[in-house]
Amino acid sequence: MQITLEYWNTLANQTILISSLLSGFSITVVANLLVSDKKDKLTNKILKSATLSAGCFLVTVFAMIQISMMTTPGGYLKDVVTKDFLIPRIIGLLTFMIGLFSLTVMISLSGWTKSKKIGIFTTAVGILTLLLIFTTMTRISF
């Protein structure tokens, strides 16, 4: 099945919106952890996963902006075909998936800063979230 350029344009624009929101959320966590007085290993792991998540979602935004610009009617390129945006598509998909994984790691680790009981709960929620996200994404064709 051939995916139309209009579909790619819509998909890219939706991915830009989602990635921007998730990047902003991750950046907020990074900023809060940077001003925090906690300097233990767990907090550093949460900071690293939030930073990785924010960076990956930002890369996804810019990869999808390139696809959106190429597939917008009357855009800067004429006679665009799907092969023309293969690299931004691959980079955008990979960084989006890494960003989702990092975000769920951050969610999973966050409860461990409070107690073992909350840590187990947030880890279960993180794993369930990741599984459900990947299950729903198996029907999406990038």
Question: Could you tell me the mean pLDDT?
Answer: 91
> What fraction of residues sit in β-strands?
under 5%
Distance between the termini: 13 Å
Based on Cα principal axes, name the global outline: elongated
Main sheet summary: none
Instruction: Report the order of strands and helices.
Output: HHHH
How many separate helices? 4
Low-confidence stretches: none
Structural commentary:
This protein has helices at about 5-35, 40-70, 85-110, 115-135. The chain is mainly α. Helix 1 (about 5-35) runs antiparallel to helix 2 and helix 2 packs antiparallel against helix 3 (about 85-110). The radius of gyration is 18 Å and the shape is elongated. The protein starts with a helix and ends in a 5-residue tail after the last helix.
Question: Concise description?
Answer:
By secondary structure, the chain is mainly alpha-helical. The chain has four helices and no strands.
